[in-house]
Design goal:
Low-confidence stretches: none
Oligomer: single chain
Number of strands: 2
Number of helices: 2
Shape: flat
Mean pLDDT: 85
Length: 91
Amino acid sequence: MRKREKSFWMAALVGIVGLIIGFFVGEFFMYLSQNVGFLGFLRFLGFSTNFGLDTVGLNLIFATIALGFTINISVMGVLVMVLLLFLYARR
């Protein structure tokens, strides 16, 4: 059972790292598609969307607390995450 818990958390970490790496690669492809004419077909890899909760504030006169949560997921981020999870599962 202990080994299974470790593999789940490692897979979750691999997925998160894949999303982060993919986001930066997607941004790079978006930059290339805007500045290099013949690489315009790479533009869709950089598309991303935001979703989450708006910021909620609590004013206690002596302190103000603000909480919010937003995730930005790109096409390339999902592709890299799936690739890394596939490679991790084959390991």
